[in-house]
Design a protein that fits this description.
Elements lengths: L9 H7 L8 H6 L7 H7 L4 E5 L1 H5 L12 E7 L5 E2 L1 H13 L5 E3 L5 E6 L4 H10 L16 E2 L8 H16 L6 H8 L30 E4 L13 E8 L2 E9 L18 E6 L4 H15 L10 H8 L1 H12 L19 E4 L5 E5 L5 E2 L1 E2 L2 E2 H12 L3 E3 L5 E6 L4 H10 L10 H4 L2 E2 L17 H14 L9 E4 L13 E7 L2 E6 L10 E8 L3 H15 L6 H17 L1
Helix pairs in contact: 5-12, 9-11, 10-11, 12-13, 15-16, 16-17
This protein binds iron/sulfur cluster.
Iron/sulfur cluster binds next to loops.
Length: about 575
């Protein structure tokens, strides 16, 4: 459809006229203001950064009683395909958080790093330092294909995990925007000469075109026994089909997405549909066809309904598939019967399959910091500096240390204990599988707390689980501070979504495997009533569950009214 036929949203015009995502970012980097303008802030997302302000400071007052106002800073997100990070890169990010951030690094639910509290005046130095470590922030956010997720388990005894990891890099490279704006602005042009739009020479963007995508686009790769990256919540999920220890192809799952807008009933969370099966050599071409169908037919008038899921809902899957076949150039088969069967968090010690070990370390809410006796940042720094191993970031916001010589196991256990970092067997499964988005104080959209209340919610839940004899039960709790769904709250056993100040919508009936949407069990639940509301349901679950039935499966089987009746 041509531009003339489509009523474009303001942001579409902004992207189109931005000289390939430069806009006024170069000029604004040269001024003394603490914040970017609104338009530059929108384009900045494509470079991996969001303008934020500390919402705790907003409430504070000066000595004369006037409000302190907004304390601006930037969030800086690093895009890391498959979550693969060397020890040097990890240490560089830790150095940066101390030097230019707020003293903490956050592992995201998409296997990336986030720095918070970076002043605008330090943004170029920060992005440059990340690039110096051979990582990038480019396309970590914005209307492009974002970080490509992949199961991070470093098993070496079969080629499956290595192939999936290699594919995550291939997809990330293939879908990286071609604009030189990122390089010019952050890496080479301190005086603004190269980014002077008067001399602008566009490069071809063969996949994205001049307006990039209508909205963000997310891809992830899983294998059936371990859906740790939540393959059904992605715009494009790739589920490996494994036969005789080899990947014969991938089921492509399309149209997943968690985000909703509270004021817009037309928005909703959705899990992906199974579209087709492709062989490994077809993956990139079919993925490109899918992205291009979204590029050309996704909604560019209303950003609230611009994600791929809304296009598929409005067309229906058969029409969408037909269009993808048209772009790909040949018919596509039905999906393979393979489906998700399990999930792992990779926390604890495991044999890699090559004589080495790997160790998954749980990091609550992904926040790497030193706080009292729990000194995660110092502990990781000590281990990585001494042993220099490769690491992997997980979608459950934790870290895996790879390639460990068994002879070093006791020394590493000692360093963990010295820094107050707990081993797998010291943590409940509820804590290991819990996820929280950042929310307050940095996210401008947060309605309620999320990361800061997660420890207390899990403490309470642990007590109730133990009381009901469920201490060893796997249960997934995801909390977000607003309905946008960054912490994927619509598919676990228990989802908590910030609805009003101090109040949450309580979702039940998903599962840790992430294959089903939850339902709303109760709305506007005050924070201190969340666990007391769930506890009686845990009791009836314990006494009535079928063999092997998870809490979420039980809730889905009984349904909202049935659960209410059981505890009436
Ligand atoms: Fe912010 Fe909402 Fe995303 Fe949480 S879910 S990080 S509150 S936008």
């Amino acid at each position: 459809m041509s531009t003339a036929e489509v009523k474009l949203s303001k942001l579409e015009h902004l992207k189109e006229g931005s000289h390939q995502l430069r806009g006024t970012i170069p000029e604004e980097l040269l001024n003394d203001k603490p914040e970017f303008s609104g338009d530059a802030g929108q384009l900045l997302k494509h470079h991996g950064s969001y303008m934020q302000d500390d919402r705790d400071v907003r409430k504070e007052k000066n000595e004369d009683g006037t409000k302190k106002g907004k304390a601006y800073s930037c969030m800086v997100r690093t895009r890391i395909p498959g979550g693969r990070v060397t020890a040097e890169q990890f240490l560089a990010e830790l150095d940066l958080c101390d030097k230019l951030g707020n003293g903490s690094v956050r592992i995201t639910t998409r296997q990336g790093f986030q720095l918070h509290g970076v002043l605008k005046s330090n943004l170029r130095e920060t992005i440059r330092a990340i690039n110096d470590s051979m990582l990038t922030t480019f396309a970590a956010c914005g209307d492009v294909n974002r970080n490509v997720m992949c199961c991070p388990a470093p098993y070496k005894n079969n080629p499956v995990h290595d192939e999936m990891q290699a594919l995550s890099q291939e997809l990330a490279d293939h879908f990286k925007p071609k604009t030189t704006g990122y390089f010019d602005i952050w890496l080479s042009d301190e005086d603004g000469e190269k980014t002077n739009v008067a001399d602008f020479n566009p490069v071809e963007e063969p996949i994205y075109g001049e307006r990039y995508l209508p909205r963000k686009f997310k891809m992830a790769i899983a294998e059936p026994s371990d859906n740790c990256i939540d393959v059904y919540t992605q715009d494009l999920g790739l589920l490996a089909v494994v036969e005789d220890g080899k990947i014969t192809g991938y089921n492509l799952l399309v149209g997943g997405g968690m985000g909703t807008t509270p004021s817009a009933a037309k928005t909703y969370p959705r899990i992906a549909d199974k579209l087709t099966f492709v062989t490994p050599d077809q993956v990139i071409a079919v993925a490109e066809a899918i992205v291009k169908v979204q590029r050309d037919h996704g909604n560019r008038e209303d950003r609230k309904i611009a994600r791929l899921k809304y296009l598929i809902e409005s067309w229906g899957l058969p029409k969408f598939k037909q269009k993808v076949e048209e772009y790909f150039g040949q018919a596509l088969p039905e999906p393979h019967a393979t489906d998700v069967t399990g999930v792992e968090d990779h926390i604890g010690w495991y044999e890699q399959g090559d004589g080495k070990l790997f160790l998954g370390i749980n990091i609550e809410s992904g926040r790497i910091k030193d706080d009292g006796d729990l000194r995660i940042k110092l502990g990781l720094r000590a281990i990585l500096s001494k042993f220099g191993m490769e690491t992997r970031l997980t979608a459950l916001q934790s870290v895996i240390l790879c390639d460990i010589d068994p002879a070093d196991k006791e020394q590493i256990n000692g360093l963990l204990a010295e820094h107050g970092i707990k081993n797998a067997d010291e943590l409940s499964l509820a804590r290991r599988y819990a996820v929280a988005c950042p929310a307050f104080p940095t996210c401008g959209l947060s309605i309620t707390e999320s990361e800061r209340i997660l420890p207390d919610v899990i403490d309470q839940l642990d007590v109730e689980m133990a009381k009901h004899g469920l201490a060893s039960q796997k249960i997934a709790v995801h909390i977000t501070g607003c309905p946008n769904g960054c912490g994927r709250p619509y598919t676990p056993d228990i989802g908590l979504v910030g609805k009003a100040v101090g109040k949450y919508t309580l979702f039940l009936g998903g599962n840790p495997e992430g294959t089903r949407l939850c339902f709303i069990y109760k709305d506007m639940v005050p924070l201190d009533e969340i666990v007391p509301t769930v506890s009686p349901l845990l009791g009836v679950y314990k006494s009535e569950r079928n063999d092997g039935e998870s809490f979420g499966d039980y809730c889905a089987r009984i349904g909202k009214e049935g659960l209410e009746a059981k505890i009436a």
